[in-house]
Amino acid sequence: MTKPSSITIADLGEHRLLRMVRGWFGTGGTDAAPIELGIGDDAAVVRTSPRTIVTTDALVENVHFRRHTIAPRDLGHKALAVNVSDLAAMAARPLAAFLALSVPPQTPVADLRAFFLGLRAAARTFGCPLAGGDLTRAPHWMLTITVLGTPLGRRVALRSAARPGDYLYLTGWPGESGAGLEALERKLAVSPKLLRRHRRPMPRLAEAAQLAKISPRLAMLDVSDGVWNDACQLAESSGVHVALRAADLPCSPLLARRVRGTGRAPLEYILFGGEDYELLCASPLAPAVMRAKYGALPGLAPLHPIGRIMPGHGVALYDAAGRRLPVRDRTFTHFKP
Amino acid sequence: MTKPSSITIADLGEHRLLRMVRGWFGTGGTDAAPIELGIGDDAAVVRTSPRTIVTTDALVENVHFRRHTIAPRDLGHKALAVNVSDLAAMAARPLAAFLALSVPPQTPVADLRAFFLGLRAAARTFGCPLAGGDLTRAPHWMLTITVLGTPLGRRVALRSAARPGDYLYLTGWPGESGAGLEALERKLAVSPKLLRRHRRPMPRLAEAAQLAKISPRLAMLDVSDGVWNDACQLAESSGVHVALRAADLPCSPLLARRVRGTGRAPLEYILFGGEDYELLCASPLAPAVMRAKYGALPGLAPLHPIGRIMPGHGVALYDAAGRRLPVRDRTFTHFKP
C-alpha cells in the first residue's frame, strides 16, 4: 500500500486534484467580501473602485527559490507577500489574488497542500483572498501571482514623485533576508528569526497606509533587490540624485550578530541583499516632523531617515563628512550581459 | 562579429533588455484609455467599473505548446487570445492585460521581439492593451497572462445559469484547431487556414456581446478543451443534463476536407480537439427566434443550435432518432490518474 505522504498529484488525476484544490481555496478564500464570483467559472468577478492597482510577479524554481531553502508552506506565504508588497509600495491595499501554478506530476499531494495552506494563511493575514487561478503541469515549480488592489488614500505613491530637497526614509531592517538566505544556502546555524525574515516576509501595509496619510507628497517603492538597486530605480524614475548616508543605514542587532567575525560588512547585505520587502520612500517631511507623525500610530516598523534627494541623477553613498564612498554594484540580474 | 539574428537576450543584459521590452510595449500598449499608469512602477493603475472580471492562464512550453508548431509571433497572439476568450465567455470585454514571461537566457532577441509584436497586434485587435508584467529567466518558455475586463451588459454569463428546457448553441467551427495542430505535429500538407485556426484563434467578443444583448438569460463558456469536456463543465456547474445532437454538430468544409479518406470522423475533432475558443451557450431562446435576433447583426460567426438542456446530469450524444450514442472521453488532462 502507498503511504499517504508519498501520494503524488499524478496518482489523483486532474478531477480529484482540482476538487481538493477548490477545498483548500474555499475556506479562506472566495467567501471574502470583494469577491463576487470566485474559482470555478471562466473568470472571477471582483468588486472594484474606479482605480484598480494591479501587480504581477513570477517565481521560478531554481531562479527565485530552491526547494531545499524554502518549504512549500513558506513558499505559499512568500509568493503572496511579494505581490502584496508591490501594492503597499503604491500606497494601496489588496482586494484579491490570482494564482497560476505549474508543478511536476510527481509532486507529493502533501507538498501542494502545504503550499496552499501557506498561501491561504497569508491571504487572511494580508486581507487578500484568492479569487481564481490556473493549475498546469511543468518540469519544475513555477508560479505567477497577480494581485488587484485599491488605493489606501486619494493618491497612489509613484516612484517618479521624488523631488530635490525631499528626505529619504526606509522602514524596518533591510539585509536580514539576504543574510538569512546566505545562512540557508551555506547551512549555517543562525537565529530562526533571520531565516524567517527570508522565508516569511511581511509586506509593510500598515506602514504604507500611515505614510500615505501623513505625507503631503510621497514617492515610494518596495526594496526587493537591495536598497542600492531600488534607490537607483527611484533616482531614474524621478530624475533626481539619491544621496545615501552610510552611517544612517539601519543595521539590525540580528544582522550585526550574524556578520560579527565574518569579515563582511552589514552594508553589503543592506545594499545588495535583496528580498527585504521594506519600503523606501521620499517625502518633503523633515525627520523631526516625520518622527512625530509616523510614530503617532503604535506598532509600526521603525522608519529610518537615511538620506536626501538632490538635483542630478544616480545614487551615491556618503560618509558623515559628506565624502562619496566607493560602491561596487552587486545587484542580482536575470540576464547578465 | 555576431549576426543580429543570433544575438541572445543574455548578450544584451537586463537593463538594455528591459528598455527594449518597454519600447515594444509602448506604442500599442500603455497609452490606451483604461490604463492610467502602465509599465515601470511597482504596479499599474487601471480605470475600472464597480465589477471587474479577471482571468489568468499559464502557457508552458512542451505542455501547452511546442516551439516547432508555433512561431513566437503566433504565440504572442494566442497567449492573449485564450485569456480574452475567457472574458468573452463571461460576456465581458477586456480592459488591460498583464504578462509574466519567463525565457531561457539563450533566447534570440529576434524571437522575443516577434513574441511582443504578435502580442501587441493582438492587443490592438482585441482592445486589450498590455499594462504591466514581469520578465524573468527560466529553463524554457513559460508565460502567464492575466486580463481584467468589464461586463458587456448588466449581467455576466455564468456556467451555472443553464436551466432544463434551454437550447444549446455553439459558435463557428470547432474541431478545426485540433485538426490544424495534428497536421502540424505530423507535418502534413494542409490548408494554411486550418493552421491559422490553431495558431491564431480569435476570441468571439462580438458574438458574446450580441448573445448577452438578446438573450434574457445566458449560460456560457468558451470551448478550450473540446465541446465534450466543456459541455460536461456546463452540466456540472448548472446541475443539468446536456443533450448533444450528433447530426447538428457543425462540421466545417475545411474540417470535412481534412478528414476525408483518413478513416477518422469529424466528430472526434469537434468533441475532443480542443483550443477552438468558440462559445458554447444555453439560452431560453428557441432556434427560430435566436436566428432572427442573432442574425440581425451582420459579420458574426454562425451560431448553431446543437442540443437541449434537460433535467439530470452529465452529457450524452444522441442520434436523429433520439438514441444515445457511445462516446469514449478523450479530453486532454494535465494530471492523469
Q: Could you please describe the fold and organization of this structure?
A:
The structure is a homodimer. By secondary structure, chain A is of the alpha+beta class. Helix content of chain A is about 35%, strand content about 25%. The first copy, chain A, is built from 11 helices and 13 strands. In chain A, the strands form 3 sheets. A 7-stranded mixed β-sheet of chain A has the order 8-10-7-11-9-12-13. In chain A, strands 3-6-4-5 form a 4-stranded mixed β-sheet, with helices on one face. Chain A has a two-stranded antiparallel ribbon with strand order 1-2. The first copy, chain A, is globular, with a radius of gyration of 21 Å. The mean pLDDT of chain A is about 90. At the A-B interface, helix 1, helix 2, strand 2, strand 3 and helix 3 of A face helix 1, helix 2, strand 2, strand 3 and helix 3 of B.
Radius of gyration of chain A: 21 Å
Distance between the first and last residues' Cα of chain A: 52 Å
* Mean of pLDDT of chain A: 91
Structural class of chain A: alpha+beta
Helix content of chain A: 25-40%
Number of contiguous helices of chain A: 11
Largest interface: A-B, 74 and 74 residues
Oligomer: homodimer
Largest beta sheet: strand ordering of chain A: 8-10-7-11-9-12-13
Total strand count of chain A, please? 13
Biggest sheet overview of chain A: 7 strands, mixed
Instruction: Tell me the fraction of residues in β-strands of chain A, as a range.
Output: 15-25%
> Ranges of chain A with pLDDT <50 over ≥5 residues?
none
- SSE topology string of chain A: HHEEEHEHEEEHHHEHEHHEHEEE
